[in-house]
Structures are given as structure tokens and as C-alpha cells.
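G., the chain you wanted modeled:
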Amino acid sequence: MDLYSYRGKEVIFVQMKSVSRIIVACLVPLTLLLAQAQTAQGVGYGLTKDAAIEQAKRDAVENGLGAYISSETVVTATSLSDNIYSKAQGFVKKFTIVKEKKDPDGNWEITISAEVTQILDQVMQDEAAMQTLLNSMNRPRIIFLIREENLIDNTPTDFAETKLLSMFYDKGFDVVDRQLVQALKGEPDYEQALSGNVAAAAKIAAMLGAEVIVIGTAKISSGGLFYGMTSGQADLNGKIVRADTGEILAVVPSAHGKKPHISPSTAGVNAVNEAADKLGTEIIRQLIQKWSTQQSNFIKVFIILKNADFGSYMMFQSFLQAQTVSGIRNAYSKSLNDGVAEYEVEYEGKAQDLAMGLSQTTPDGLNFKVTGMSGNRITAEIVQ
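Predicted structure as C-alpha cells:
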């Protein structure tokens, strides 16, 4: 069985083009049309099979959701138009490769049949879809640093972190063993990271080989006694950060939980578990949207070029901006310090596809080789 047929659950986000001249739209509501998953075909091209599949999925969403939108008759001041609406979100729930071809130059053409939907909650509940999304993001490893204050027991506790770790693990995330994280207590960056310092948290993540880190605080307190029962109260907040760039991927400013129990300690635990469940659910929801958007639109890739002087720095910038490597949308030079140049690239596809494209392309007058990759960071060096 084809790997992509068997594990063909995917999450993709696409935005349709907006239409400005809508005066009257008087047919079946779009939400009803998109409430059920629809089948559509998509075609994609790329230097690698994976890159072609990603493009095919974007095409399938546009074709599938666009077919329903364009079937709506839109009345304008001058004509009937099949143009559509404003932004619509779409996800590929599953797909099957129906045709694949590789030309003599090594380029791939992939045709898929896909099931597309607009309903994010369907993706949230689909374990296989979540797994393939994580695969498409190179399965980022995640660590948790939650500072918890327990005003009921007045002792150090980690109930919120335990609940969050369990939630992410159950969703299929690659979670770094908590004991490895706690073993770093006493390190200069550990306390700063617990206090919300993103730079310090990134260092901790790098030490543990993690790409993503969840930073947050939790407070457990009593809301008083009611009919002999303690009202447990909990307030959490959190954000999830990329370790290599410091980019904030998701933010939940507050999540509240409250639970009564005859035991004050149990009331506090139940309340913090409720708040942590709300926090974790919202973080995962935001991550799905963030990563799906990146997969269907573009991702930011950071390129580090070593052994560079000013001439090669400018030449490599021109090479990137010329979009010789398929999938590059934009490229920006960031800095040149002590022979190390940094660039930011907006790329349609995965970072490893960009690395592959760079390694297969040599611009005139500039020799370089790709030497490493971690997350969305590619390392290369000038070869003399």
C-alpha cells in the first residue's frame, strides 16, 4: 500500500481570494455547503515527491472549496458572477495519490484525490490528521516550563504541567522527558526561563534538543467554603515559542478553572486540571491553524551562510531573490558579522525541500554547500 494512501491524513489551510463587488447573495449559506467534507482533485509539482504532494493538497483545497463557492450565484449591479466571497478556510482530512510521475530532470508531478473540509474541530478530533501535520512540520520536540503557585497546600506542585504534558502526549506530540528538564534546575537559564524569559527558555530547549517550548504560570487558590465544600480556583496562562527563532506560535492569556470538593487539596487539583485542559486545547487549536497556514502558504526559513565576505553576501542574496530555487517567495538579507551571513526566506514547502533545492543549484561565481539543518534553520558555507 502506498505510504501516502495509508497515512494520508493531512491538515491544510487555504485562503480564497476576496471579492469586492457583492451586492446580493441569496442562496444556500456557505457554512451549510462546507459543513461536510467534499472530494476534490489536486495536482502539484516539486523537486521532491513531498514538495509536489504539499502543492497538490493546496490545489485540492482551492478546487474543492472553490467549487462550492463558485456554484453560488452572486448578483452584482451589472451582471451575474460566479466569483466568490471573502476568506474561506480549508483543511485536507485525507488524500490518496492517484498518479505520480518523475521526469528525467528529477522533478515530480503528483495528482491526488483529497477529502477537504472547513471544520477545524474535525481535524482536532482526528488523530491521524494530527500525526501527519506533525510529520509535515518535522515532528518538533516540545518541553514544558510552568511555574505553579499553590496557595491551598502552600507547597511546590506541578499539576498544571503534568496535565499539559499528558494532553500533548495523547495528541501525538513528541514530548521531552520531564526528568531531563528538571535535571537542569540550578542552571542559570532555568529560573529565568520559568519567569517567562524567551531567550533563556530557548537556551534550555537547545540543551535538550527541543524545537518548541511551552512557557506559562499557574496559580491555585481557594474561593472559600460553600456548604462544607471548598471552591478550588485556578488561573493559568501560557505561550508556545519556537526555540530556534524565538517566534511566538500561540498565546493564551488566561484560562480559568473552578471545582468544589470536600477536600481543599482535591478541589485545587481538579480546578487546575480544568484550567490546564482549556489552556492546552486552545494552544493546540492555535498551533493547528498556525502550522496549517504555513504548510499551505509559506514558512519562514532562516539560512546561515558561513565563510562569507561582503561580495558573497550580496551575491547569495541576489541568488535567493532571483527565486532560482522553486518555492521561494521572498528573501531578505539580515546581517553579516565576522564572516557569518544571515538570511530570512519565505518558502512554499518544507525546510528540507528548500535545503534540497539549494544543494542542487549552483549560482554562477559562487560555490557553497549545505552543511546542516535544524527545524527551519539551514546552515551552509562558502567553498573556496
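Residues 3-136 form one domain.

Shout if anything looks off.
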